[in-house]
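Forum > Structural Biology > Help requests

Title: Can anyone predict the 3D structure of Condensation domain-containing protein?

Hi all, first post here. I have the sequence for Condensation domain-containing protein but no way to get a structure on my laptop. I'd be grateful if someone could post the structure tokens.
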Amino acid sequence: MTTHPAPATTAAAETGTGTPERACARCGISGRYPGIAFDAAGICDLCTMYERHGTEIDAYFGDVERFVSLVRARAAERGSDVDCLLLYSGGKDSSYVLYRLIDLGLRVRTFTFDNGFISRTALRNVEKITSELGIEHVTATHADQDRVFLRSLQQHKSVCNGCFRSLLDLSTRHAHDLGIPTIVTGLSRGQIMDERLSWFHRQGIFDPAEIEPGLKEGRRVYHQAGGGIAPEVVDSVEVVDYYRYSDVTKDGIRALLHERSDLWAQPGDTGFCSSNCMINDAGVLVHTRERGFHNYEAPTRWEVRLGHLERAEADEELRMPAATPRVRKMLLRIGYPLPEAGTVRPAAGAPAAERTLPATATAPTAATASTADGDSAAATVSAADGRRTPLTPAQRQVLARAGNTPGRQGRALLLEAKDPADSALARRSTLALLLHHEALRLRFAERDGGWEQYDAGVSGALPVLRLDASGRDAPAEAGLLHAAVDRLRSRISLTDGPLLQFALVDRGPLPARLLLVVHELLADIRSWRTLLRDLSALWAAGGETPLPPTESFLHRAAAVAPGAADRFGRPGPGPARSPAADAGAREPVRIRTDCGAPASATRVAAALSAVLADLGDEPGVEVLDHTAEDGPRGIGRWALAQAPSSGAPAPIRYEHFGDLAALLPAGSPFALVAADEADFTVLPGTGRDAVTVSGVVRQGVLHLDWWCPPGPRGRLLAAAVPERVARRLTAAADPAAP
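Reply #1:
Sure, ran it for you. Structure tokens for Condensation domain-containing protein below:
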């Protein structure tokens, strides 16, 4: 078993003393911590104080019921629709708090401060879990945070002071602007003891009735000294520490995350003292070398005294970070020289034992952080960037064809997995796709100048539905799928999103099926290949794996030349239908024919035109090749095989899909399921106004489906048009065609 040196020995090596320093025999706190003293038994004075005044100190803490009562009372008093704003880092402590707030029935929004060094895993935790829970979320950043870190290191030998300055200023303003009366933090009880209460305890003050007014006054001073936030803004938002009211241990936090969350992942790049921030190790290194002790020493040892952490685990958490290339690179980026071991020098702020103001903010040594750069006017809130892009000509064509049902134009595909249903895997994979593909996050707005599209980000509940088909026979499952496709299409909204819907079909011990419905505006064959490639990779890896980079959908759409309309787009087939006409129309009738070996879109269109010419009809055929690679993303390539001389819309529209099995990558954990209830080639309204023919290859055979309004159906059957086309294609089979 690998062992690590004790923290006292490591600190001695870092500070250059050459000998281990003294440590408390009970909690393990280092003798280098300012103001610490030991009795004859080697017990530190903080342990002795807690032993004597434990009952009084514990009186400051409450229970969860008290917490809920306070938060709800403030929301009711202010008439707020949101109970609280949680400061959410994506680490274990704040993730635990978020789940508990939801369990307690509170109305929550979340706020994340991205200081530029937040672990990507932590940020993914934020995005995944808030999306899973349907929580409204915002991420903020500071325009000059590197300079804030530099000033913080120069003055306090810690990056945390400046970071928390930015976090608290931004979140307080944000909560005030939204009318949210309470900010909830995930400070541990050890941090509460050190940052909130230590000054009072050293003055012999243990009564919460005396402590609370001092904390509020200190918070006003803190914000005014740093960012100049008006007192009325500060007073409108109360900061409440969740762990003041929860006695959960570190083990309890980990147990809940393991039990409740399939999405939270432990970042692997954040060092020992943080589960969200990468720059933390750089701050610890500087503080240890220049102040002579670990800046997490006090709060971590309080966790030991309170029984929330074993001493050995605390020793491991406080193990000093080495000056790794990663730490050196971070300090270089900030512009702070890497300190040599043994170069202890004082910080600009007073040491912890000599503070003159109570530590009142949710930050380590907050009272000494008042001179850190807190120019929150330079801060920016980053959600979707609001960039709006006109539709491509092909997308406009989709909307023209959709008539009065633009939101229901979703193509449905049914896949079968190898194992029974796994809801957690489906949620993880779906969320990863949303985070990775800008196209899946698109929203559409109709302006005076036409439709526009923009990236709305990831928000709201995950579009994953679970269907229970266990124990059902084939006809019953087919009926369930038919209803599910209609339901999922109805849930797609161009303006409010999302543009995709997934349904996990639970078939008991049988392999699960996954029903995908994606709007036609972003679902051409090439896009489906990419989507299914990434879905297959995620599913095979348990829902978490790096995906190939993708270029921006909106950048490509903006780059489509104005002349592209002449090459790829055509006006719609006629005026939009009225809702009354749609409601009274009968469903189109399908005529299915098999046509031998695969054929290209051009060959099928030629066969259609030839049969029409043989019958003396004007051979107008409109072709949409979904497999075309040179059309703008969102739909395939439009062309006219032969235009009617009258200039009227073509009487037949042919849509070519090719071999659907080729959508799946080699080695995919899925198999394609051919089902009329989830037919990829069918959109609502197909064939209402004109004859639509779709061509798809299944197991090496080209199948043509004819979708006809009731009137043309009789004429087509009387003239045996579908059979004539099938015979012509079979006789002229082209095995080399795609």
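The two ends are 60 Å apart (CA to CA). The first strand starts at residue 84 and ends at 87.
Shout if anything looks off.
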